[in-house]
Amino acid sequence: MAQKYLAKAQLLYAYAQRWRGLYAKFIDSGKLYPSVSMHDDLAYAAVWLYIGTGQQKYLSEAIAFYGKSIASEGHVSSNPYQWNYENVIPAL
Question: What angle do CA 65, 29, 38 make, to 5 degrees?
């Protein structure tokens, strides 16, 4: 059963790679919780896929997305323990 869910997670990640965009532009709650970057979310997903599969490509992508997130989210609190809808980097 775990392999089935892992395969679904990989498909969802591949979908997110093809159709990049900020969720806030497409859903009503985006007005209340706007987003400026998707890179932290992609890094978070890639880390979990690396843990689940052991495939080096996911770790490499996570590191790349992490760098993009740090570069693009300068407004995010510098508190390394503050995890919220706009910044999941502290979880990494």
Answer: 5
Answer yes or no: is pLDDT of 13 > 80: yes
Q: Which residue has the higher pLDDT, 40 or 31?
A: 40
Query: What SS3 class is residue 77?
Result: coil
In sequence order, what DSSP letters do the residues of 6-25 get, joined into one string?
HHHHHHHHHHHHHS---GGG
Q: How far is the C-alpha of 9 from the C-alpha of 7, rounded, in Å? A: 5
The DSSP code for 35 is -
Helix, strand and coil in the chain, % to nearest 5: 65, 0, 35
